[in-house]
Amino acid sequence: MSKIIVMIGAPGAGKGTQARLLSEKYGYPQISTGDILRAMANADTPLGHEIKETIASGNLVSDEVLAQVIKDRISSEDCTAGFILDGYPRTLDQARLLDELADQQNKDILLVHVIVDEELLFKRLTGRRVCTKCGEIYNIYFRSPKRDGFCDLDGAPLIQRSDDTSETVNRRLEAYKISTAPLIDYYRQDGRLIELDGDRPVEEVLEQLSAIIETF
Questions:
Q1: How much is the average pLDDT of 60-74?
Q2: Which residues pair with residue 137 across a beta bridge?
Q3: What confidence score (pLDDT) does residue 1 get?
Q4: Which of 43, 126, 142, 153 lies 20 to 30 A from 174 at CA?
Q5: Where would I find the beta strands (DSSP E) of 37-192?
Q6: Per-residue model confidence as pLDDT tens digits over 110-142
Q7: What angle in degrees, to the nearest 10, is found between the helix axes of 202-215 and 15-26?
Q8: Quick one: pLDDT band at residue 149, thresholds 50, 70, 90?
């Protein structure tokens, strides 16, 4: 049976990196609802305009719109053998809908929860600095530039994104814990949850994750 791998983890946990590596290793498409919605928001269609206005206002796109987006995307031929979801589901209603879609496609769902120490997450996010010219990413705790405040590649100034400030990061981490706790319980009840120590090197996490997926 083909698989649906759902990746969840706090901001900065590295779930996106693991999703990308899994996609490269197994050929499963990595489906990010955020990327799809941003692309649709740029389209000159009624739905595109609606999504653009919703995102601009800071509100969440409705479950109905997200459901249609997911249905359309996973019906593509490249999803036949399986796919990786990053950013969906985020609520119990969305999880139940995904179960229905999985049954229709005869697919098993595995939820992968990447766990990282909160202090480390805080440093990963608040320490992040981005080059204003080329977009290269540094971290003042783990990968600092040779010259403080300037990019090694082109000498342009580095900035801290507005969503990487201490106050914003604290809010993001708290919101994540509140929103995902029910999902984790939902998938744990019937043995579809695996939890990985994301504090370890990326290669070690991928190795353990691959071994679990291949026997699931």
A1: 84
A2: 130
A3: 59
A4: 142
A5: 82-86, 107-115, 128-131, 137-139, 158-159
A6: 999 999 999 999 999 999 999 999 999 999 999
A7: 60
A8: very high
Non-local (6+) Cβ contacts of 85 within 8 A are 4, 5, 6, 7, 31, 33, 98
Share of the chain above pLDDT 90, in %: 55
Band of the pLDDT at 194, cuts 50, 70, 90? very high
Tell me if 7 sits within 8 A of 209, measured CB to CB. no
* Domains of the chain and CATH, by start: 2-117+166-215 (3.40.50.300)
**pLDDT at res. 87:** 80
Task: List, by residue number, the catalytic residues.
Answer: 15, 90, 128, 161, 172
Higher pLDDT, 30 or 60: 30
In angstroms, the CA 133 to CA 153 distance is 10
Residue 23 neighbours by CB under 8 Å, 6+ apart: 29, 30, 84
Exposure b/e, 152-190, CB count within 10 A at least 16 = b: eeeeeebeeeeebeeeebeebbeebeeebeebeebbeee
Q: Which residues contact 170 (CB under 8 A, 6 or more apart)?
A: 122
Residue 3 neighbours by CB distance under 10 Å: 19
Question: What distance in Å separates the CA atoms of residue 125 and residue 13, rounded to the nearest whole number?
Answer: 10
Confidence (pTM):
0.80
